[in-house]
Amino acid sequence: MSRSNKLLFLCTGNYYRSRFAEMYFNHLARGAGLDWSAESRGLAIERGGYLVGPISPATVAELMALGVSQPAEQRGMLQCAGGDLESADRVVAIKEAEHRPLLAERFAGWEDRVTYWHVHDLDGATAESALRELRQLVQSLIAELLA
How far is CA 36 from the centre of its chain? Predict the structure, then answer.
């Protein structure tokens, strides 16, 4: 049996944006019969010491509103490792200004090998607007992969 194609979403803490993109992508990919699955990781989860719980409540609420099934128990944030990058067929970092420098610092050479989106964290956008933008970007990516 051949393995499905693997997509990796990256953000800083793997708590909010990348987790939404991962679960929403997997929901849409299953529905479309796409042979792709997504995972997500954080590039600097140590910066999220103030975050409460395993995943952003805004992410959970948005996924529920979209009818995306979720595990009974959410996993915690996961730090990106070199093997995560190596095993992915495609890598998307959620915000270039934030994540290109982290990739260059922690995974030199990868900063020019990923696709960058431009979705702000809570310091530059509300959760509602950021998640709406991520919804549109994930939908566009699904359409691209189907084409």
Answer: 14
